[in-house]
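Whether sequence alone determines local backbone shape is best considered at the level of individual chains. The sequence in question and its structure tokens are set out directly beneath this paragraph.

===
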Amino acid sequence: MNALTLGSLAVYFVLMLGIGVYAWRKTAKDSSGYLLAGRSLTPSVAALSAGASDMSGWLLLGLPGALFASGLVEAWIAIGLTVGAALNWIIVAPRLREQTERLGDALTIPQFLANRFPDSGTLLRVISAVIIVGFFTVYTASGMVGGGKLFATAFAGVLPDTGLSDYMLGIFITAGIVLVYTMIGGFLAVSLTDFVQGMIMMVALVVMPLVIFFGTETAVQLSAVPQEGFLSLTQGATAIGIISAVTWGLGYFGQPHIIVRFMAIDKVENVPIAGWICMIWMVISLAGAVVVGLSGRAYAQANGLVVEDPETIFIVLANLLFHPAVTGFLYAALLAAIMSTISSQLLVSSSSLTEDFYRLFLRRNASEAEAVNIGRLSVALVASAGIVIAADPESQVLGLVSNAWAGFGAAFGPLILLALTWNRMTGAGAVAGLVTGAGVVAAWIALGWNKAFLGGPGLYEIVPGFAASLLAIVVVSGMTRTGREEVKA
């Protein structure tokens, strides 16, 4: 491992910690400042924070790995995500920003739901907080798996002997850096680091394909990949397979770590600007990830390169094709993708544990300083649980992400959409949708129907979960409606 590579990573780590210290000095020392940055994010910061916290290590590991292994047919996921993200900015973002402030100045999604449906407020806060903490612990673990894979692949034999495997040491280093800046700087630190990390990720995903095609001694041709239908969007695809891929986009409406960014934008009028910035960033980044996977497969076959784990193709190419200093930058891009999502998930989990458990049941009159400290402790607790889950080196980033993404999308997606747009929804309907969505996803995974369904390929669990949640909300709201609107959406 070249000293320049390690130096580039060291600069990145110092920058992240520096942003954490800056945010700690600037952010108000109260819950609103720690958990939502006082609703002061500029459009550019909110946009890239939403994008970077969304994509995670999946963007540089899971998606390129899937394209590397199976070809362009896996790009249906990227197509679905692009459409879903655009609709999220159009439908959810402006309404959530306005309503969370108008309805009791809610700091968390569970608080907003409680304020929107006061008759079922406590039950909604508890159930939604349990779902958030549970699924985010798994989601956080997926990011840590990405960090472990980076260190195990790129730094094998270089890291000091600590009695831990390179994989586990990578997990601890990744989690440690994230914990420091998240615990001290709160939401502002997470958002500012997301902005920087989002820029690094996008540049890396533009540079790598260009180097593969034009900057290597052996120019690669995608058409040279012998796999039949490698560049086809439909070769080998089934209707269920395409539906499963495209419906990843449904998950956006229910991802707390993404939609909380909408709540923190400084003005409702700035939401469209932020949306355009985020979508431009997202299209460029997703296209880059798709091309990395495809061109990486072409390069590997043209040069007789054996890649044992497809999800490490970005790491392998970064090490082979670039100057050591640039390699360090590319590794930093991968860590940026991982850390931006972990930090966001930790903070949202922390906010639920603090506001929807501690302050609701244990210390209703807790001071602002006490609440902030409990929030920091909660960050550490969720991170510790994520480390335990991620300890299995055989874990797949895409698999962990897909399960958590479906859980949130089905549980909260229909609930958030209808809560923001449908005045006839009731608190009982909200509870029914929340429980049904999460329960159907969990059951679908447990039965293995996401892997094999009706004798054919599996159906992604978000499809039945989202549909069941939507139906439960409409039916139960119709049965429990009293003829009055609980709160005007």
